[in-house]
Amino acid sequence: MGRPTLALVAAKSGYSVATVSRALHNDSSVVPKTREHVLQVCREVGYQPSIAGRRLSQGNKAVVGLSLGVRDHATGRFVSLMHQALSSRLAASGWSVELITSAEFNENLDIGGLILVGLARNDPRLSSPVSRTIPIVSIGHGVEGFCVAPDDQLGGELAARHLIGLGRERLALLYTRDADGSIALRNTAFTAAARAGPRRGA
Fold first, then answer.
1. What are phi and psi of 102, to 5 degrees?
2. Would you write out the chain's pLDDT as a tens digit for each of its 202 residues?
3. CATH number attached to the domain at 57-148
4. How would you class 4 by CB atoms within 10 Å of its CB: exposed for 0-12, middle for 13-18, buried for 19 or more?
5. Residue boundaries of the structural domains of the chain
6. Phi/psi of residue 147, each to 5°?
7. Which residues contact 44 (CB under 8 A, 6 or more apart)?
8. Backbone phi and psi for residue 170, each to the nearest 5 degrees, phi listed first
9. How far apart are CA 69 and CA 130, in angstroms?
């Protein structure tokens, strides 16, 4: 059996090749339900859009940049897992992911989108002219624009509860002196939960 083709996806999905192509290119004319059906058929038949083909037709616009903060390292566990997950998900639509260090973040970036990680207080990336020319998603708290943020307060609280639930009575917390943002939220919540002790009836 040969490699699955766009024509096969079209035949299996019941849509035209043009519609399938637009769905895989995130064209706004394709409704979400149709796009999800097309992607489901792609998964079923094992079709993988060509990243190389998209790069040839769209250049760097087919790239999503993973922008690292000044303290992030490309080999760090969080960055590695993020890069791996993004690459896997975006590949289904023919997009690729490119790591961008803090030194490489400048006004000459020419890519399709950016995901900002490692945000710091008054992060210059948020006010850069780049943010007005490239769609950006930030991962973190207290930023303007579209962002995705974990519940750091609940995370700190759950960590303390877990240790207390194991019967630990003396808890310690290690943190940096300049901890702020999400780290500060976790620290504060952990400390409060630890001081509160076991829940009644627990």
1. -60, -30
2. 567 888 898 899 999 888 887 787 766 678 889 988 988 898 899 887 665 555 545 555 678 899 998 888 888 888 888 888 888 777 766 778 889 998 889 888 888 889 999 887 788 888 888 888 889 999 877 677 788 888 889 999 999 999 999 999 889 888 766 556 677 888 899 999 999 888 765 5
3. 3.40.50.2300
4. middle
5. 6-47, 57-148, 152-196
6. -145, 160
7. 12
8. -120, 110
9. 15
- DSSP conformation letters of 16-74: -HHHHHHHHTT-TTS-HHHHHHHHHHHHHHT----HHHHHHHHGGGGEEEEEPPTT--T
**Residue 100 Cα to chain centre, angstroms:** 14
List helix spans (H) across 46-180: 51-58, 77-91, 124-127, 152-165
Helix (H) or strand (E) holding 182: helix 181-196
The C-alpha atoms of residue 162 and residue 158 are separated, in whole angstroms, by 6
How many residues are recorded in the chain?
202
Strand partners, 117: none
Token digits for 201? Answer: 């009836």
Contact 137, 148 (CB under 8 A): yes
Angstrom CA distances, 180 to 101, 119, 186, stand at 22, 11, 10
**How far is the C-alpha of 123 from the C-alpha of 110, rounded, in Å?**
20
Report pTM.
0.61
Tokens 């040969």 belong to which residue? 2
